[in-house]
Amino acid sequence: MSMGITELQGSRAAIGHGHGRRHAKQIVPSLEVYDRLFRDFADLDWRQARQQARRFLPAIERHFPAILEELDGLAQGAGIDFDDILTLNCRSEISLTRASGGCSAFSLNRHGQQWLAQNWDWRPDQLHNVVILRIKLNDGTVLISVGEAGMVAKIGLNAHGIGVCLNAIRSRTCGEGLPIHIALRKMLESPDFDAAKRVATLDRVASPAHILLASAEGQAVGLEVHPGVPGELYPQDGTVTHTNHLYAQAATACVEDFPRPDSATRLSRLDQLLTAQIAETPQALFELLSDHDNAPTSICRHTNLAQPEAERMETLFSVVMNLRRRELHLRLGNPCEPIDALTLSLADETT
Fold this sequence. Notes:
Pfam families: AAT. The protein is α+β, with helices and mostly antiparallel strands.
């Protein structure tokens, strides 16, 4: 399996249609993956999940109405119903209130370089549905997102030097606000750090997650988002680290989460590794993400056959971003033994 880059540009409708047409053969299987997930963890069939997704429409219409044109184009391009695409983009709100994901993320600021990096750990049946989108909107906004086919965004950066990473949080909390993946897309369209942060603090996010936001200028914050005021984690010695549990007081005071035990051990290991002297190169940071301490529930996660099949996860891709250089380095599969690797740059798009 090798990775290709999907170039999308033009109107919202054209971008959505191009995405849907190009990746229809991955979007349809993605719907099947989440149909199984909703049944496994939320006891919902697809029809019920579609009904749940529609309750997020008012928040999208209020805070990011333009993305609805792209979602509609996506559905048309893939030859499926709008509600199916909406449900896919609300998958965290529907399922992650009960099923946790993995992921280990950190920001690092050293010698004028701002890095963002993470492993994305998820169900192995989604590996073949990972896509890389390079999007150029008619207003000149340019961004790169690495995520799942049919979703408008996940992890990435834009030409202004704004980058985002994501950690799942398992909680029964879900309220008003933007679905997580739609909030990430709005952040990736933001012209600066403050505008991106306002997506979390003003628009709000419907269900708990951790979004690690940073800028080329060296600003960074871990945002433990939820329907209320997000918890904010600021750099200590130039780093912010996060796994899959909440620990900012503003979040823990009003949200109960249910992390797996390895979330705390992975966070401690990340902190330990980042206190050591490490080379500030993509290779060195991928080596950090390849750490196998406490395997199989390590930073670099491999499938644990002792777990029930529905709960098995592994690292599906790893990302290291240098925001000052507008570079995104990607490894598909486990970072220790990647299936494929590539580097993307938005340096030529910097104004």
